[in-house]
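Hi U.,

Before I forget, here's the chain from the pilot set. I'm dumping it here mostly so it's searchable later in email.
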Amino acid sequence: AFVLFGMDGNMEQAAEIVRKQLEKETVSSRWDDIPMKYNLFEHKILRTNVGAKGKLVSFEQGIPFAKLFRESTFKTQSINAFSYGSSAETLYEKNYMEEASEELELALQYGHQFKDPGLFIPMYILKSHIYAMKKQFISAHAILNHAIENVKEKHWVTSLQIMKAHCYLLEGNLLQAKSELTHTKSRHPFWLLVHARLLLAQEQVGDALSTIISVKSKATLEDQVSTIIEATTLEAICHLAMDNEEAALTTLHEALKQGEPYGYVRTFLDESAIIPLLTKYLAIRQKKEQGHWNTVPLSYVEHIIQSGDKKKNASILLTPRELEIFALLKNGSTNREIAKHLFLTEGTVRVYLTNIYGKLGVKSRTQAILVN
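Structure:
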């Protein structure tokens, strides 16, 4: 059953195997008290075999399968604990935030009960990510600092520090993000993709693109679906930053094609720079200008965009640095004047403005000025 699940096999067949096993009389063993370590070093449960390497299951398949563990003699086993972690990450990706938070807390409890950092570290990372996406950066860093104080293994500390770098990037604090990454240099996809985001923010787009393509190639060989989708989305952002809209749209289509079978949503929404491109992609699809893009259902694209619709309140959506730039923008300052006032390059200002437009769901300077 585990192999079928991990290899994206027939879920009904896997569930039937488990049901038959549950009907048999339980034979106790001294091995029952030794939890299985299903995750040795990954920052996401979804990157492990128990997480099916990012091949998210539908609720129709996943809920009955999870109940087999949660309502049986398996409920005290570590496989059940990991089912909560996998469920939390899946629910977050599908944009069910409240449900994800509930599963996350249960997974944390189990992780500490079993003293298994392979479960509770990914949950602390997910929890900090949820805070960061809500712009609650103090809470995000507090969660990560707490976790760092309570784990000894170097590779887990490194994963937490990489997440801190990601949070600093989301805040717009490039110097602190760079410092964290410098102290944790790694060849793991997690580090490489956060570093690529930093390179993008520093306008080193060519280096960012090279890093992203390298990660994507390795992930493709390993069939790591979640990483493939994330890397392809960032690749589209790179093309957009290089003013190659055609390549950006084509690459975005590739990412959507990978994500649609599994219902990926947050991987797209969490990259604010991709929102304007998604809107453009949708407009082209609605006009039926690219027939070969029909491999991605239009309803899926509409669902992602609708899931990201929020009240366009700049004070909620923007980081402190972005708010500074936004205030100058609303006062009529040019890019050059903003750069001079804040001691930035004009290129950096353009990158900030792209992120601001994406978060506010607008396409131009004029539209941004009208947002409250």
